[in-house]
Amino acid sequence: MSYVFNPAPQVSVPVVGRAERFPVRRIYCVGRNYVEHAKEMGFTGREAPFFFFKPADACVVVPAGETGTIRYPSLTRDLHHEIELVACIGTGGKNIKAADARKHIFGYAVGLDMTRRDLQGEQKKLGRPWEIGKSFEESAPIGPVVPAAQAGDIENAEIWLQVNGKDRQRSTVSKLIWNIGEIIEHLSTAWELAPGDLIFTGTPEGVAAVVAGDTLVGGVSGLPELRVRVA
Ligand code: MN
Question: How far is the CA of 15 from the centre of ligand 1 (A)?
């Protein structure tokens, strides 16, 4: 087969302990999935889970022990960090039950759902889609994938983010409103999951702005830290 121009390269993430990489297909993100974060965004009460997408090429893949770089994006004056646990799908399916979800997960990674909060806020007010606030280039820094069997007790892992060495976000994955199995159950009623799909599972409270020159270090216990500098 030939193309009228070279196709974009396949986005992929290194896998801890393996030479083979994890090829990324889609990026699903869950909105407002920790109680204290929903509150800081002005919402209370349990709502049904809802989802948005980022393009696969929004990934900034950061190998273990390295520091990735993101450029401060256009149009915004309020670029926010959201540290998130990322579930990486290895086996696809539709209408997956929460109790069976584990079998579909290849592994886990640490990700950042970088957000142009001012633009997202304007879209919310207008009842418009969030893409301009969420789905821009370099909006999804991600660290290596750890195979599920080596990731430890991920449902109870600590999740945290520091900016320039100071705590910004610190919580535990056990505080997810919709846990990973429930997210996969809901998602797979609406879309057919496939190998290579990433699910950003939501961020805990403490989201705030970063500026050029800041260094973000985030983690989920059991997974390699994610280090990113804002250029
Ligand atoms: Mn998020």
Answer: 23
